[in-house]
Amino acid sequence: MSTSSTKRRVSVTIDADLLDAIDQFSDNRSAAIEEALRLWRVQKIQEQLQQYYQSRRQADVEEEEQWATLAEQQLEETLEAEEL
Asked: Which biological process terms from the Gene Ontology are attached to this UniProt entry (predicted)?
């Protein structure tokens, strides 16, 4: 994960209890909130991937399995031909 040297100052409103909890665990609010946002972003991407894979049609899944089988066969043939 890259850390950008370009940062922007923002103003947000945060629940007081949540802010107190952040202060208990970190001396650096900005760093704690940045880390929380990074984790949130990863979670959202994972949710999108899960939604995509769960919404695929069965025909698409079967076609992908056929392509995977073909790729495995070709790899085996190539390795055998090159005696690897």
From this structure: regulation of DNA-templated transcription
